[in-house]
From TrEMBL:
<keyword id="KW-0560">Oxidoreductase</keyword>
<dbReference type="GO" id="GO:0004022">
    <property type="term" value="F:alcohol dehydrogenase (NAD+) activity"/>
</dbReference>
<keyword id="KW-0862">Zinc</keyword>
<dbReference type="InterPro" id="IPR013149">
    <property type="entry name" value="ADH-like_C"/>
</dbReference>
<dbReference type="GO" id="GO:0008270">
    <property type="term" value="F:zinc ion binding"/>
</dbReference>
<protein>
    <recommendedName>
        <fullName>alcohol dehydrogenase</fullName>
        <ecNumber>1.1.1.1</ecNumber>
    </recommendedName>
</protein>
<comment type="similarity">
    <text>Belongs to the zinc-containing alcohol dehydrogenase family.</text>
</comment>
<dbReference type="InterPro" id="IPR036291">
    <property type="entry name" value="NAD(P)-bd_dom_sf"/>
</dbReference>
<dbReference type="InterPro" id="IPR011032">
    <property type="entry name" value="GroES-like_sf"/>
</dbReference>
<dbReference type="InterPro" id="IPR020843">
    <property type="entry name" value="ER"/>
</dbReference>
<dbReference type="InterPro" id="IPR013154">
    <property type="entry name" value="ADH-like_N"/>
</dbReference>
<keyword id="KW-0479">Metal-binding</keyword>
<feature type="domain" description="Enoyl reductase (ER)">
    <location>
        <begin position="8"/>
        <end position="340"/>
    </location>
</feature>
<dbReference type="Pfam" id="PF00107">
    <property type="entry name" value="ADH_zinc_N"/>
</dbReference>
<dbReference type="Pfam" id="PF08240">
    <property type="entry name" value="ADH_N"/>
</dbReference>
<dbReference type="InterPro" id="IPR002328">
    <property type="entry name" value="ADH_Zn_CS"/>
</dbReference>
Length: 342
């Protein structure tokens, strides 16, 4: 089968012919990939940013946002059958450790992460995962239309879900960066909260999309955007600021736009956060980190998606054009999410 593999860091991946994955355990599931999202984390992987944390053996197949059809199942699989249309939670969990028992899949002690660890990911024709990762979809669903909800979607939704108690009517949520994750956050905020939504981005096209999908106000990141947000909120700032950029100083912009007793949710990464301790004490401001989301988050998000309340805006590429997709993402030429379709 064809697969996109990283052979060396700081170099473009290669499209290789490799053997198809095989069943290795009773709960294994082989997926015929119908769509694989292209994520900014893939760029970080290629750059070697995750090499020490995940220690993958090179070469390996990237791609952690995947949906498709069940192709083969292990002897112990009962929740899906061959032919089912599914979306995959990006990090299969064991279900037995204390974190899993508490519903915190992303802290599972025995998890693996296809496409990020040494387990091959989904930028390929087939992918091996486990039954615990599979969520069945309506059979009419096109996997390419929803694949990126498996990571970009639940990362954004997870943060919004956590912030819901602070986003009652009369509050303001600021979304900084309305790309692949941010445009999903805007829709989730509109669907499950009563907050006013203010979107900040440096790209006018991104702001136009944000307005179409639920933003109440849009602000061009032109150097005066912090003051503009403060003006829109009577000098307070956002009760919650979702920072989907968090690099090149944007993480400090988000902090400056956060109201007293408010919270900055950091979802992007690559920068460095610094703030006076007096801001925390005197302003009672919070910084909250986020990584992906739980299986339950993905289940809830798919209910919203199949009800038409969250729509993934995509640009599709054939698997052979994976390098074009990665380069377009890196250059900021993708509105929404790039999707590879084998």
């Amino acid at each position: 089968m064809k697969a996109v593999r990283v052979h060396a860091y700081h170099e473009d991946p290669k499209i290789d012919d490799i053997p198809e994955p095989t069943i290795q355990g009773p709960l294994d599931v082989i997926i015929k990939v119908g769509g694989a999202g292209v994520c900014r984390t893939d760029l970080h992987i290629i750059n070697g940013d995750w090499a020490e944390a995940m220690a993958p053996d090179l070469p390996y197949v990237i791609g952690h946002e995947n949906a498709g059809w069940v192709h083969e199942i292990g002897d112990g699989v009962t929740n899906v059958a061959v032919g089912d249309t599914v979306i995959l939670h990006p990090q299969p969990s064991c279900g037995l450790c204390l974190a899993c028992r508490r519903g915190k899949d992303m802290q599972c002690e025995n998890a693996f992460f296809p496409g990020l660890s040494s387990n091959d990911g989904g930028m390929a024709e087939y992918l091996r995962t486990t039954a615990r990762a599979c969520i069945k979809l309506d059979p009419t669903t096109n996997p390419a239309d929803v694949a990126a909800l498996a990571d970009a979607g639940i990362t954004a939704y997870h943060a919004v879900r956590k912030a819901v108690p602070d986003l009652f009517p009369g509050t303001t949520a600021v979304v900084q960066g309305v790309g692949g994750l941010g445009h999903i956050a805007v829709q989730a905020l509109a669907a499950i909260t009563g907050t006013r939504i203010v979107v900040v981005d440096r790209n006018p096209d991104a702001l136009a999309l944000a307005k179409q999908i639920g933003a109440d106000e849009t602000v061009l990141a032109d150097g005066n955007h912090i003051q503009t947000v403060l003006d829109l909120t009577n000098g307070r700032g956002g009760d919650v600021v979702f920072d989907f950029v968090a690099e090149q100083g944007a993480e400090l912009d988000a902090w400056a736009m956060t109201a007293p007793a408010g919270s900055q949710y950091i979802l992007g990464y690559g920068g460095e956060f610094k703030a006076p301790t007096l801001d925390f004490v005197g302003g009672e401001k919070n910084v909250i980190g986020n990584i992906v989301g739980t299986y339950a988050d993905l289940s809830e998000l798919m209910v919203l998606a199949q009800a038409g309340k969250v729509t993934l805006h995509t640009k599709q590429y054939p698997l052979d054009a994976a390098l074009d997709a990665l380069h377009d993402l890196d250059a900021g030429r993708v509105r929404g999410r790039a999707i590879l379709v084998p």
